[in-house]
Amino acid sequence: MNASAELFRRNGYTGTGLKQIVTAAGAPFGSLYHFFPGGKEQLGAEVIRESGLLYGQLFDIFITPADDPVSGIESAFAGAAVTLKETDYADACPIATVALEVASTSEPLRLATAEVFNAWIDKGTETFARFGLSEKDARKLTIAVITSLEGAFVLSRSLRDVEPLAVAGETAATMARQLMKEPAAK
Predict the structure, then answer these.
(1) Cα 139 to chain center, whole Å?
(2) Which of 45, 72, 74, 166 is the most exposed place for a label (fewest CB within 10 A)?
(3) How many Cβ atoms from other residues are within 10 Å of residue 174's Cβ?
């Protein structure tokens, strides 16, 4: 599964062949269908779910320990920029990569990506609410952070420049500042 996640993140779902997967995993070809009788689509859905759990932990790494949501957001976007540069713009979010490719053509993969995104929204909402935001504002901020980050990944990878991540991070941090100043909405 780790080899598949790496390949999907770098090459996308459709750009990754079964032969590549078993070669990278050092496994016999038949083992893929033994463990995943639904083939590449079943493997893809499982990889999405597992990778999604790992990426969801970024809230715990960057936001939870921060003194406030603004510094947590700034740290998360700065960390994403470092990762992109260090990996020569290859490592971004595998969930968004697959969602963009197959959400209209594979219902099992669409459902897996939706499950992950919903889990991230729930996790972020819970995390930002701990800073005193209402659930509604915490959810709004979480969705803004996720969409800003995912969009910035697309632009940064295409432009081979982390400026989109910096701008998106500033925008999300500004929203957090505004929400923290406003009285909590019910």
Answers:
(1) 16
(2) 166
(3) 12
Q: For 32-41, how does the pLDDT look when each residue is reduced to its tens digit (9 = 90+)? A: 777 887 888 8
In sequence order, what are the residues at sequence separation of 6 or more whose Cβ sits closer than 8 angstroms to the Cβ of residue 106?
41, 44
Exposed e or buried b for every residue in 138-161, given b needs 16+ CB within 10 A? bbbbbebbbebbbebbeebbeeee
The tokens describing 53, both together, are 């759990």
**Going by C-beta distance under 8 Å and a sequence separation of 6 or more, which residues neighbour residue 51?**
5, 8, 9, 94, 95, 116
Phi then psi for residue 28, to 5 deg, are -70, 145
DSSP state of 59: I
DSSP of 150-181 = HHHHHHHHHHT-SHHHHHHHHHHHHHHHHHHH
Tally of CB atoms within 10 A around 16: 23
Write out pLDDT tens, residues 82-120: 999 999 998 888 788 888 888 889 999 999 999 999 999
∠ CA 8-9-10, rounded to 5°: 95
Rg (CA), the chain: 18
